[in-house]
Amino acid sequence: MLKTYLAVIQEGEEGGYTVYFPDVENAYTEGDTIEETMANAQEVLGVMLAYRIEAKEPFPTQSSMVAIHDSLKPNEFAALIQVDVSQYLRASTVVKKAVTIPDWLIKRAEKEGIDLSGTLVEALKEKLGV
């Protein structure tokens, strides 16, 4: 599940960068280079959004890009950071479940080489938005 939020990046006077997400509480990080900073920003965003899913909290509402851009200081710039939140969800124990599927559908799936368990997991993630 891809999510995109606006980040504010501050260039430090002595080098390095700090990042915060105005709309995502407690989502901030830093880096020595812009590449490291952007990678760290993606990771902190993924972790904080995954936490919200696990805590059954809604995703933060995004502010207007114009409003954030207009509030930037001279040493700041804004960037959109996109993350696949599903990569940051905690691994869980696999549970075996019995499901009822029409015989013709199973035969067709097997003929096509479709992994039933994997397909069910993908379908559930899509249905649940995770």
From TrEMBL:
Residues 5-110 form the HicB-like antitoxin of toxin-antitoxin system domain. It comes from the Bacteria. Pfam families: HicB_lk_antitox. This is Type II toxin-antitoxin system HicB family antitoxin. The lineage of its organism: Bacteria, Bacillati, Bacillota, Bacilli, Lactobacillales.
